[in-house]
Amino acid sequence: MRAFHENRIYGSGLPVQISKVRSIDFLAHWHHDLEFMYVSEGSLQVGINSETRTLRAGEFAFCGSGDIHYYDSGKSESEIILVVFNPRLIGSAAGWPEEGAIRSPFIPYSDTGERSPFEEEALRELAGVMERIAAEEEAGREQSDAVITGLLHMLCGLALRYASADGPGRRRSARAAAHLKTTQELLDYLDRHYTRPLTLQDGADRARMSVFHFSRFFKNVTGMNYNTYLNELRIGRAERLIVGTDAKLIDIALECGFGNVRTFNRVFRQLRGGTPSDLRY
């Protein structure tokens, strides 16, 4: 898992990534691209901006340009269809959707366990398009790029139809939008500087909030507390260095922002259930 302002590089062909992913875990991050996910098996926790939901088989979520989102499978098994693409494919190079156009990024709209006929219809329509996109990608038939592009237009159109803010629901307030922008900037800062001894007060100062308010807001948006988030970044880099280099563990610990090996080992065990040396032996 790694958190960042993600600038995707798609290579040649369509700027789209289509995949089936099992038991995904991904730290809070954001990007300009659009991201649609459909749970085909099991369940997982998904956070988008300050809203968190446990999605189950047959349910759907999507992220517009700039939305902060994360995936947490925990101990649950799941499989999702994940479609990520540049908004210029649907003629919205500046981003999608328009501000205030969406009542909720989740369908069903609440986690009460009861779906309305309207929500059932939405899920049938959206599931059909997501599954068709995945099948088209897998088959690689002639003119598949044109077909996939058309299906992406349909996907966005259906998302707007069934999640429109014209129906009952919430619009993002100016204050919430400002907090989202602040959090985007903070996540970028943490990704660049997590090796420093950053404190909760440092984060609150950068977000221009009190420590109490910042602590609650950060957890609502990212799904974890500030210190755990920082340590996930540090341990993620440490894992890459342990596997990809011959550097000593003490040097890796210091490079990743830990003051000593003892702290490094303790945090590694808390987050990964083993020791750093387990990755080498």
The CATH topology of the largest domain corresponds to: Jelly Rolls
CA-based gyration radius: 20 Å
Helicity, as a percent range: 40-55%
The coarse overall form would be globular
Sheet of most strands: 8 strands, antiparallel
Distance between the termini: 22 Å
CATH class of the largest domain, anyone?
A: Mainly Beta
CATH superfamily of the largest domain: Regulatory protein AraC
List the total number of helices: 8
Order of helices and strands: EEEEEEEEHHHHHHHH
Count of DSSP strands: 8
Rounded average pLDDT: 89
Which architecture of the largest domain would the CATH scheme give at its second level?
Sandwich
Main structural class? alpha+beta
| Domain module tally | 2
Q: What are the segments in which pLDDT stays under 50 over at least 5 consecutive residues?
A: none
Residues in β-strands, percent: 15-25%
Helices and strands in order:
Blueprint lengths: L15 E7 L3 E4 L4 E15 L2 E6 L3 E4 L5 E4 L5 E8 L20 E2 L9 H23 L4 H20 L10 H20 L6 H8 L3 H12 L3 H19 L4 H7 L5 H12 L9
Antiparallel strand pairs: 1-7, 2-6, 3-4, 3-5, 3-6, 3-7, 5-8
Helix pairs in contact: 1-2, 4-5
Provide an overview of this structure.
- The structure is a single chain.
- The relative contact order is 0.13.
- The protein contains eight helices and eight strands; from the N terminus they run E-E-E-E-E-E-E-E-H-H-H-H-H-H-H-H.
- The mean pLDDT is 89.
- It folds into two domains: 16-163, Regulatory protein AraC (Jelly Rolls, Sandwich), CATH 2.60.120.280; 174-279, Arc Repressor Mutant, subunit A (Orthogonal Bundle), CATH 1.10.10.60.
- Strands 1, 2, 3, 4, 5, 6, 7 and 8 form an eight-stranded antiparallel β-sheet that branches.
- It has helices at 117-139, 144-163, 174-193, 200-207, 211-222, 226-244, 249-255, 261-272; strands spanning 16-22, 26-29, 34-48, 51-56, 60-63, 69-72, 78-85, 106-107.
- By secondary structure, it is α+β, with helices and mostly antiparallel strands.
- The protein is globular.
- Strand 3 and strand 4 (51-56) form a beta hairpin.
- It is 43% helix and 18% strand.
- Residues 184-281 form the HTH araC/xylS-type domain.
- Keywords: DNA-binding, Transcription, Transcription regulation.
- GO terms for molecular function: DNA-binding transcription factor activity; sequence-specific DNA binding.
- This is Helix-turn-helix domain-containing protein.
- It comes from Saccharibacillus brassicae.
